[in-house]
Amino acid sequence: MTMDAPSVIRRGEQVGIQTILANNTPKDIFATVVLHSSTDYVFVKLGTTDGNVDEGKILLLGGEHHHFVWIPAGGQLEVRIAVKPIIEQGSFEVKISGITQIRSDTGSVEINVIPEGAQIGKHTSLVVDLKNRATVLKFLNIWVEESPLNPRDPMRKYIYGSPTAHVTLYGDVFGPIFPSIPVTMNDLIGKQGQGTADRLFDLSVNIWSLHYLRLTNQLNKSVARQVFVQLNKIFAHVMRRFEVNDTTNSGSFRMWDNSQPNIWLSAWALQVFMHGTFQDWENYFIVENKILSGVTSWLIRNQNLDGTFGELSDSYQRHPLNKKMQDKVTNTNGPFNVTLTAHVTIGLHLVIPHLDGKLKLEANLAKYRAIMYLEKHLNEVNDPYEVALLTYVLTLVDSSEKDAAFNRLYSRRIEDGSWFSLLVSWTYPNQWNNL
Fold first, then answer.
1. Is 407 exposed, middle or buried (0-12, 13-18, 19+ CB in 10 A)?
2. Could you give the angle at the alpha carbon of 225 between the alpha carbons of 276 and 179, nearest 5°?
3. Element spanning 227, H or E
4. What is the separation of C-alpha 67 from the centre of its chain, rounded to a whole number of angstroms?
5. How far apart (Å, rounded) are the C-alpha atoms in residues 430 and 71?
6. Do 141 and 125 contact (CB within 8 A), yes or no?
7. By three-state DSSP, how is residue 70 classified?
8. How far apart are CA 313 and CA 318, in angstroms?
9. What is the pLDDT of residues 141-168, one digit of tens each?
10. Could you check whether the bond before residue 182 is cis, i.e. omega within 30 degrees of 0?
11. Using one digit for the tens of pLDDT, what is the confidence trace for 77-101?
């Protein structure tokens, strides 16, 4: 006897358990299928007492239920048993037995009941300093309010009983190292996606996980071989939306098949590819120079006269794929574009050593113009993320304004702790969100 059922259902749904009974004897056999009683679910009876099925007449019956069937010789029989969970949320187990005159068999399936509606996932991070003491007490900001009730509104902020949370603790890396192969966005932050940015995220976390194991002398061939196989598969998904045939947008990346080319996405892909380019890995994973040259050339062609980089479409300018790329400050002549310009500058700085010829000269010129713009507008930036990003970029390229940028960042620090355990961080003012 085998059983099959969905692993997850929504609250209020009924579920059908597919049970396959096999008869390996040369004779027909009589069998009894028993649905065991439980306080977590009830049996769904369709139809009337004469055996006719009527969906309008549904009975929900508790207790144990028996079904008598004949199984043909050497054949199989499918029996579908419908149940409805009583619990509002959580897991329950359905147990079914098949009994004949020869033998019996019992199986079970576990089904998880989740609330109805769309799931909203949030995550936050907290730095804990354990250098000076073994016990540190910290408090996390909870995104969900205590009550879902909204005064004078019949709509609720969230479903009762639906909020759940989990905590991941890790040391000097960005998350667990290969809890599965490959590491995915779902493993780290509990989210899933099918866009190019989502695949780039998966590609980058696997690359940096390999680098961490390599730098700490923990990388072995068996793990590396499996990861490289998955890396090439993820890379193929990313390259699926790489523009080659279009002469105007050749070298760009798209979020979806029919979407417009995106500056931020192309620059991020360039950064990820450069971090994945490592001499010892060339036999297992490599990004060809013509791909790097194509992305670089397209970014340079779309640089503005003042040295900035901006999205080509108004929709991406108003609603960027990465919300952090949306400027907090705008000037009178149009978008400020300081965040996106800094982001593209990082990619250009990383790829220039791998270029040659005329393209290398053009990339250096584009990088210089972008740095000049960032240095000019450094004092106009006040957002913590933008100040930190500009400080990183100017330090990376060894700009003459790197010390001024660091002083501007350091002046916005937040010190939390006592004299023997001081934690310095940068954050936004408290924001209360209603979900």
1. exposed
2. 80
3. helix 221-239
4. 45
5. 66
6. no
7. strand
8. 9
9. 777 777 888 888 788 777 777 787 777 7
10. yes
11. 888 888 989 888 888 999 989 888 8
